[in-house]
Amino acid sequence: MAANRRPPKPKIKPARKHDEFLPEDTWNRLSKNIREIHMHNASSLSFEENYRYAYNMVMYKSGSMLYNGVRDLVAENVDRLAEEDIIPSFPKGTSNDPVQQGQENELLLKALRRVWDDHTGNMSKLRDLLKYMDRVYTKANNVPEIWDAGLDIFLKHIIRPPIQDHILSAIVTLIQIERDGYVISRSAVKECVDVFLQLHSGQQENETVYKRDVEPAVLLASEKFYKAEAERLLATCDAPEFLRRVEVRFQAEKSRTDHYLHSQTGTPLRKILEEHLLIDNLSTVVEMPNSGLDPMIDLDRIEDLNRLYRLFDMVLPGLPTLRRALKASVLRRGKEINQASACTESGETAEAEAEAETGKANGKAKGRAGGPPQTLILALKWVQDVLDLKDKFDKLRKEAFLSNREIESALHEAFEDFINLNDKAPEYISLFIDENLKKGLKGKTDVEVDIVLDKTITVFRYLIEKDAFERYYKNHLAKRLLYGRSVSDDAERGMLAKLKIECGYQFTQKLEGMFQDMKISSDTMQAYRKHLENTTTPAIEISVTVMTSTFWPMTHSGATCVLPEILTKACKSFEQFYLSRHSGRRLKWQPSLGNADVRVQFKARKHDLNVSTFGLVILLLFENLSENDFLTYEEIQSATSIPSPELKRHLQSLACAKYKILKKHPPGRDVQSSDSFSFNNAFTCAMQKIKVSTVSANVETIEERKETRERIDEERHYQIEACLVRVMKDRKHMTHNDLVFEVTRQLASRFQPNPQGIKKCIENLIDREYLERCDDRKSYNYLA
């Protein structure tokens, strides 16, 4: 049996001896291979071998030789690339053709990009080979890693005169060629710009060569170009075309920075455009004759106005300039509306006065006892023109100016200014509302009615003298209610509701009281008719409206009249009934505000006439006269005691208007004190019922307007005093300026008090010992 045998032990080989390291020899082999890399022959080389060469040089303390040697080789290669590729691509500069110039400059930029791509490709390979050197040697010796060193070499050997000058010139030239409308290779510029963005100048932290060199050159050329461009556009374009060209320039420059210039250039480039194309020319564009802001508004060029707004909104002084121009435009148009109204009315007034002096009145003088009839037409036209202007600018504000609040404020100020320049604005607005509430809303839907009322409130909102409007509105409302002329109670109450929202409860308190009186009067008449069923019924049927004197305008109190006995009995009957129900009250009849239905027998037939109460009193004088009997003007006035202006108006309505119930002798359009009248028995008309309209005084005469102004001033005086006492009673002590400011603020919703008027009222209150002046002569104490 064989015995087990152990395997023999392996022999231990001695350690292999390394060859002696020779730095120069290693570097020679490595440098040769680096040159092969620069010549694009890296595929034939061994990465491990070259990595070991570099590793050994660092390990054996030859890192300095390696680092500096590589830098020199890289610089040598970059210089070779510049000489072979970039410098031969310099533009010749012999052609004036933009297309050829563009091609030459594109070739230069592409050459730079090729050199960059070659250089960075080589540096990427060297970075991989020299990783150990970057990790050990560069950090220990505080020198840049080989990649950063390569970028620095590229910067110093390529981005230098004259190459740098030609490159910057090429970029600026290509931008200029594109601005002139030609097509360029944006990619060539973009690739070149990317090179400059990756190179850092070293002068400031993180400052790129693009920021140091390219951007200033582009901005300098841009400023020069846009200065000239602004002058050229102003000389050759109208305002809309100028704005279109400017907008295109802004869009083009944004596209330019987005596609091939860096975004950081966008802001300073935009500022250049804003300064030279917009800021320097804002007023010039707005005021361009035949094409500026006003012509664009006249022609409703919404798109052009919107472009103007958008461009002006880009710059700080843009909106204030547009705001001032729009305000001036509205003011000018508003003053033209005021001027047209004033000229027409003054011309007609002068004509009417001349006719009155010569006694040759014509149709235009008809009814001048109540004021020129055209004044109502002027009022309606004035308000409608203002509303049309408001609608026009509201549309522009919404569609062109995008509902900008500053623009809205400017338009509001302009409308307020020119509306209040017309001292007849309160009367005109009230007349416009009166006309609409009488017949202008007939046949309209509730929505349409609300639109009309909203428009009238729009104009009313601009009024400063709202107390003057209140007086006119109260007179017109009283006539509508008493004569039953309102198109609907809903519309009337809707208008009151809008006025209350605008001015508060106190403004409409008396107006609402008038409506309440009408309702109470209706209930009273129902009770009166039931009362008559148990008593002796008067010969005529009457309908009475009992008006509270504090609510209603009592401007007609002076127009008295001697009523016939038949009317007097009816009035007495109602008085007895009313006073039996209410103690401590007093009734005062207002015949000038009433009307009557009377059946009149003419030769041909009977007609039912609707006339004023004064008209009825006049007609009853002719009841028992024969066809050939006459009554003189003096006899009629003596029998009725109707004031002369009222009597002439009513005689003119009965004898000179459309329905000639009476005959005037001699015939004519005007009533004179020497005239006489007879009953027109031969009157004929196809209608059974006839309304004989009185020559009305819808508008004020000069004297009446003066009287109204005096009453308004008197009321304002009392309101200022009441406000002064109210404020001082609350504060006890105030300086003069603070007191004037507070009183002005509180009264602003009704009118704009004059500081001198406030001072005068303060003096009156001091004299009446409500206030006392302090020793400093600048403040007051409350006494009462």
Automatic annotation (TrEMBL):
Keywords: Isopeptide bond, Ubl conjugation
GO molecular function: ubiquitin protein ligase binding
Identification of the protein by name: Cullin family profile domain-containing protein
Gene Ontology CC annotations of this record: cullin-RING ubiquitin ligase complex
Pfam families to which the protein is assigned, alphabetical: Cullin (PF00888), Cullin_AB (PF26557), Cullin_Nedd8 (PF10557)
Chain residue ranges for the region called Disordered: 340-368
PANTHER family: CULLIN
The family this protein is said to belong to: Belongs to the cullin family.
An annotated GO BP: ubiquitin-dependent protein catabolic process
SUPFAM superfamilies on file: Cullin homology domain, Cullin repeat-like, Winged helix' DNA-binding domain
